[in-house]
Write a structure and sequence with these properties.
five-stranded parallel β-sheet, elongated, 7 helices, alpha/beta, 19 strands, 328 residues, seven-stranded mixed β-sheet
Length: 328
Amino acid sequence: MSPTGTSSHHSKVLVLGSGPAGYTAAIYAARANLAPALVRGLQPGGQLTITTDVENYPGYEDTVQGPWLMEQMDRQATKVGTRMIDDSIVSVDLSRRPFVCVGDSGDSYTGDALIICTGAQARWLGLNSEKLFQGFGVSACATCDGFFFRDLHVAVIGGGNTAVEEAIFLTNFATKVTLIHRRDALRAEQMLQDRLFSNPKIAVLWNHVVEAIEGQEEPFKAVEGLRLRDVRSGAVTTLAVNGVFIAIGHTPNTAMFRGQLEMDDEGYIVTRPDSTRTSVAGIFAAGDVQDKIFRQAITAAGSGCMAALEAERFLAHESELAPARAAE
């Protein structure tokens, strides 16, 4: 214990983040007798804690709830030997091993290997009504939730590649998809635009922004429409829809690693091909923090498994080299 009352905690494998990637990494590391520690972060359970019905995670015949699924992963990781820590990392020093991470509590956490699973946050419009209906008709993932909108009218908000891709994907389920963009031209690649405009199920509403998401709250929450404002004329209209998909991008939770790990232009951690290895030996990244393509619970869990296996091999190799180094 330091004079300030803070503590230092060491583990062979330190996992940051408690979504599917982090929990899976911890499970595999614990089963390899590496006694991992996992720092849960600000949102224990990650994005799935704000997801209600989950129907696409393998192993469950019936629909399960996102928070329940994350609770089960947490319990499994704990049962096999993971030390769970309720703290949020605010700064890191990755210049030497063991790697040092400092929590909001003031405590420091060190690891001989580090697995980063801090995820990414969907960008939202920032409306109170949007938050009210999240998980009840408002989503940021068409692949996750499109199935629930079969034979219904949905809206997609955005104008980039993600928005266009989500709109096209949703035509597999919805009878009509309205893409709403605040400008008069899309930013998406031309090939995607061609596919969008040629799809008879898709309509584009230009120069409009969402002022509010409308719907019922009793006896159950359900989206019923959008209040829209024309940015040119200021006219306010209402569009009846059953679901809203916000597709204005994601922000990876990587700010604290900037300048210490290689990242792409959007801030995602760069990993080696067919690997979770980062630009620093002994540090691995898994899940949405390095995956901006798939962003699924199952792919995050898979990469968490990869990270733990690679961390185990890294530590085993370091252990083999230790006697030789000591003899030098």
